[in-house]
Write a structure and sequence with these properties.
- By secondary structure, this protein is of the alpha+beta class.
- It has seven helices and six strands, in the order E-H-H-H-E-E-E-H-E-H-H-E-H.
- The protein has a six-stranded mixed beta sheet, with helices on both faces.
- It starts with a strand and ends with a helix.
C-alpha cells in the first residue's frame, strides 16, 4: 500500500494545490470554476478558519516523498450524531496509484479514533463516475445507503444541487479492515 502523510494546510502549498486542481480532469470532476492562485490562497485561509471553528478537518495529502498529491477533509462534523462527510481529490498525475485508499485510511483514522465518530459519509454526483468507481474499490465501504440515510442523502443533493449517490464508512468495518491488515502483515 502507498504511504501518505496528512498535514495541515499552509500557504506554501498554494501554488501546487492550484496547479493540481486546475487540471481539467480534476477541475471538471469537482465542478470547480476557473480560478487563480489568489483564489486558492483564499480557499486555504477559509478552510483554516473553518478548522479553527471546529466545522471541518481539512488536510493536505503528501506522498512518501513529501510531495503534495491532493486534499482530503472531514466536513459537516456532527458530534451528536457521531458522523461527518468526507471529501477527497487526488491530482490527475497520481490517479490509479493507490493513493485514494491510503488517504482514506489516514483521514478515517482521525474520524474514528480521534473524533470517535461512528459513520463517515462519502457521496458523489451521479455524473462523476470516476469518483463512484474509486469509492467502489474500497473494501471497507458500504455502497448505496441512500434509503438507510435519507436525511444525509437529501442534504448532499441539496448541497451539490444535483443527483448524488451516498455511501458510508462505518467504524466497525474500518476497524475490522485494519485488524485484518495487521494480521496479514
Amino acid at each position: 500500500m502507498k504511504k501518505v502523510k496528512l498535514v495541515q494546510h499552509q500557504e506554501e502549498y498554494c501554488e501546487e494545490i492550484y496547479r493540481l486542481s486546475s487540471a481539467p480532469q480534476v477541475k471538471d470532476a469537482l465542478g470547480l470554476p476557473d480560478g487563480t492562485v489568489a483564489d486558492t490562497r483564499r480557499f486555504i485561509q477559509r478552510v483554516l478558519a473553518e478548522e479553527q471553528a471546529g466545522a471541518t478537518i481539512p488536510r493536505v495529502i503528501l506522498n512518501g516523498k513529501d510531495k503534495l498529491i491532493g486534499l482530503t477533509d472531514l466536513m459537516f462534523i456532527d458530534h451528536r450524531k457521531k458522523s461527518c462527510h468526507i471529501g477527497t481529490w487526488i491530482g490527475h498525475e497520481y490517479w490509479g496509484q493507490g493513493y485514494n485508499e491510503a488517504s482514506k485510511l489516514a483521514i478515517l483514522q482521525i474520524a474514528f479514533e480521534e473524533l470517535e465518530l461512528d459513520c463517515v459519509f462519502a457521496g458523489a454526483r451521479t455524473v462523476n463516475i470516476r469518483s463512484q468507481k474509486a469509492q467502489e474499490k474500497l473494501p471497507f465501504i458500504r455502497l448505496g445507503v441512500e434509503a438507510e440515510f435519507r436525511e444525509e442523502h437529501q442534504a448532499l443533493e441539496q448541497k451539490e444541487k444535483q443527483p448524488c449517490v451516498l455511501n458510508v464508512f462505518c467504524k466497525e468495518d474500518y476497524l475490522s479492515y485494519i485488524e485484518e491488515k495487521m494480521i496479514s502483515q
